[in-house]
Design brief:
CATH class of the largest domain: Mainly Beta
Radius of gyration: 25 Å
CATH superfamily of the largest domain: Quinoprotein alcohol dehydrogenase-like superfamily
Largest sheet: 5 strands, antiparallel
CATH topology of the largest domain: Methanol Dehydrogenase, Chain A
Number of strands: 21
Strand content: 15-25%
Distance between the termini: 63 Å
CATH architecture of the largest domain: 8 Propeller
């Protein structure tokens, strides 16, 4: 560890803290005056792994951003005060994590997971990462005081991108398909009539007509149809997914139940599951139900958005997560229920949450990296009274259509907010309750009709 050895000792005595709904007796033993964490006290890899563990086991009480809730905040002024009175070194904080947490199953995490969670807490509070991992045997040599400047916290958090991130786990059931057989190209998406056995886009084609040209099922034989497969997902709630079918592999998503949802790859002819990826959501607010309307498939990946407002890319052949990025802040009421649109290397999404006082948008992300390309806000400040545009609604929660000839993205927007009381948002409230066309490469407004 790149920290100084202990120099002096002093007795802090006994202290009792009230945490959450339980009284925890925290005994403070003689401790060292040691150096604050510096380069080498934990690694970014530990912090990123800790974010996953924290989301599943800790965020329900402490909040997805450590802001507190049923249990105390683990960041900010209140946490800094706790460090002053109780936890002067990481070993003391580690002791609480490893023996008393999670509250519903204390001590159930492994030593490695406990250390990863501790690293995540350090990262979220702006303690600098280094190249030497946290080691439970030497935690007394790492002090938590002085508390870092919060400008450093913002810089660290921005680099790690681990706030409010849920976790995924994958189950492989059947033989994985060849990656080339489930890789959808732009040429394929633009010529769906040449792929009549597939369903490559949410609306089948970019016009979202949803019309199937297949003629095998007709008025003369529809009464003789019988079930050939029943897929048990284990998720019991309302399904609104439109499956995507690529070369005999069907991709579908489930709604959210108990903060979990699944993305599945299924043999379309038999109903046999190939793989399923279970996503454990971080903190979110439900606006209009726990539904997910489906995925987009292209370039060898499956793309899905979540109620905790993440955009996730999975390997279409194996189900492994390629990247996971934030779309908007779910703690404000933003959520994602739509099936993403995919076009010329971009993934386009809008946002649900229209019953919350938030501002709608449409955003495009690079399909390879997840980096945001552009964002268009759906409330026009000039047409809302005062600052009501900041909470003006006009959400976009259905999959946009595309006019490839003109490179236009076309969609409808929802109601202004609040929807039942207009005096607080006087004006024309552009671009709510409208059909909107954007230039798909730039996100610039082309036209709208309200």
């Amino acid at each position: 560890m790149n920290v100084a050895k202990r120099i002096t000792r002093f007795l802090r005595g006994w202290h009792i803290r009230l945490w959450s709904n339980a009284v925890l007796a925290i005994v403070t033993l003689p401790v060292a005056a040691v150096s604050a964490p510096g380069a080498g006290d934990y690694t970014q890899a530990q912090a990123q792994a800790g974010a996953q563990v924290f989301s599943v086991t800790c965020s329900v009480c402490h909040g997805s951003k450590l802001q507190g809730g049923a249990a105390p905040a683990l960041t900010g002024a209140a946490f800094a005060q706790t460090l002053t009175t109780t936890y002067s070194t990481t070993s003391k904080l580690y002791g609480v994590i490893s023996t008393l947490m999670p509250v519903d199953n204390p001590g159930s995490l492994s030593k490695e997971q406990d250390t990863q969670v501790l690293a995540y807490i350090l990262a979220e509070n702006g303690y600098p990462a280094g190249t030497t991992p946290l080691d439970p045997a030497h935690l007394d040599e790492v002090a938590l005081l002085p508390y870092p400047d919060q400008g450093a916290k913002k810089a660290t958090a921005g680099n790690l991108e681990i706030q409010n991130i849920g976790s995924s786990n994958r189950l492989v059931v059947g033989a994985l398909p060849d990656r080339s057989s489930v890789t959808v190209s732009d040429a394929m998406m633009g010529s769906v009539d040449s792929h009549t056995s597939d369903w490559l886009l949410h609306g089948r084609d970019y016009s979202n007509q949803r019309f199937s040209p297949l003629k095998d099922i007709n008025a003369g034989n529809v009464s003789s149809l019988v079930p050939v497969a029943l897929v048990q997902t284990g998720i019991t709630s309302s399904f609104e997914t439109t499956p995507i079918v690529v070369n005999g592999v069907m991709y579908a998503s489930t709604p959210v139940v108990d903060s979990k949802m699944k993305i599945l790859a299924i043999r379309a002819d038999s109903g046999d599951i190939i793989w399923e990826s279970t996503y454990n959501l971080g903190e979110f607010k439900i606006c209009c139900g726990p539904v997910n309307r489906g995925v987009a498939v292209g370039y060898g990946s499956v793309y899905v958005v979540t109620l905790d407002d993440r955009l996730i890319a999975l390997d279409a052949a194996s189900g492994e997560v390629r990247w996971n990025v934030a779309v908007a802040d779910p703690t404000l009421g933003y959520s994602e229920t739509m099936a993403p649109q995919i076009y010329k290397g971009m993934i386009v999404v809008g946002s649900a949450g229209g019953e919350w006082p938030i501002r709608g948008f449409v955003a495009a992300f690079d399909a390879m990296t997840g980096k945001e390309t552009w964002r268009w806000q759906s409330t026009d400040p000039k047409s809302y009274a005062g600052d009501s545009w900041q909470r003006g609604g006009a959400m976009v929660w259905t999959t946009p259509a595309i006019d490839p000839e003109r490179d236009l993205l076309i969609f409808s927007t929802g109601n202004p907010n609040p929807d039942l009381y207009g005096p607080v948002r006087k004006g024309d409230n552009h671009y709510s309750d409208s059909i909107v066309a954007l230039h798909v490469r730039t996100g610039q407004l082309a036209w709208f009709f309200q």
